[in-house]
């Protein structure tokens, strides 16, 4: 353990930096849902066929999910501040291109470019927090804010997307990113001082980049295609087989090369591994829920896009409260598993309430309390998960460790949308077929079938959240973070009785 004199003073600009890091994270998370609401109008204006409509979402998801590990490694190599600023400016340019799109090809190209720069930006943002906030209590507050944005930003996107589409034009769902990105880039350039010695200057692992990118693209595309073409489709099955082969080859390569893209020690430390796995599962449940509730409120209840967005506010309020008031306050007092495990259980209880959905369910009596429980649970769990994602990691690996969190979220989102939507569609078809003979109102039967499908899929989401809680209780065994700054942690991992060592790098 170094002497007290060897421990650097905290960066005086760290809280200002957090404002711009959080702003950038909000922009990236917003973009995941804001375009969904604008898509029907954009499709009509740009004459995009129904068959190609999904590519407006898929082009972004493939580029973002496929390049995240590469983006994390670039952040370690170039420096997080530089990568962060480049990512922001590139994202702004791609958003301007999307907003000005005059054809299908221009739109799809802009979405892919947004994904590319998002893959640079997201891991750089999280790893900057990891190396700038070194005091346990301050780190808890910073990650509480970051976790609330990561969890609730998607729902904010629904509100903002509804407003922009309904009162301005779908193009503003792209243009709105530009001021976010420019303010965050200028602010980051002026106030962020990245700690010295935090870069990983070893040569780039080209085989690892190629194998991981192709493997993740195949995986994300496989799940995306399954949603529209079915699980038995030849190309869907081919994508899954290709992803398994490519990712297995990637792991084998990383075990042998001198300077791996993803050092396996980042994955094999049980606490980080537990975070990546449990968080990915939780995101599967969350993304499915966003999809179902949006359809339920708009199609079944007849809410407008703006009203639908506001209907998600209780979940956002719950997430912010869970992250900043529960998670951040208890993070330095209890072990992370005692926040993550109960958080996922509470979210599962909220999800369980939504299995009771019916066509005439009351918003105030059922949906509102379910959203509050979900938000509180997810916010409480996300906060320590975000902090633990860089638990004990070598500072030079902070970028790629942060990229793994985003990768687990991105892959989880793709799986959640495809898997739960397929389950819902199948249950809807079965319900309508079995009740068609005695139906007197075909429209009502259609709505009842749709809601039955939603509730059937939500039962699966309950089970998935229960699995996330079990993993958090079982794999995450580190103790509570120790107060004050400590020396850089190792990749050996803390035992059940050990206290977390927060990485610190000298200025």
TrEMBL record:
Residues annotated as domain Major facilitator superfamily (MFS) profile: 17-481
Family annotation (PANTHER family): BLR6921 PROTEIN (PTHR42718:SF46), MAJOR FACILITATOR SUPERFAMILY MULTIDRUG TRANSPORTER MFSC (PTHR42718)
Alphabetical list of InterPro entries matching this protein: EmrB-like, MFS, MFS_dom, MFS_trans_sf, Sugar_transporter_CS
Presence of keyword Transmembrane helix: yes
PROSITE patterns: MFS, SUGAR_TRANSPORT_1
The protein's name in its UniProt record: MFS transporter
Coiled-coil features, chain-numbered ranges: none
Compartment(s) where it occurs, according to its Swiss-Prot or TrEMBL record: Cell membrane
Membrane-spanning segments: 17-39, 54-71, 83-101, 113-133, 145-164, 170-192, 204-223, 235-253, 274-297, 303-326, 338-357, 363-382, 457-476
Topology in the lipid bilayer: Multi-pass membrane protein
Source organism (scientific name): Streptomyces xantholiticus
Keywords: Antibiotic resistance, Cell membrane, Membrane, Transmembrane, Transmembrane helix, Transport
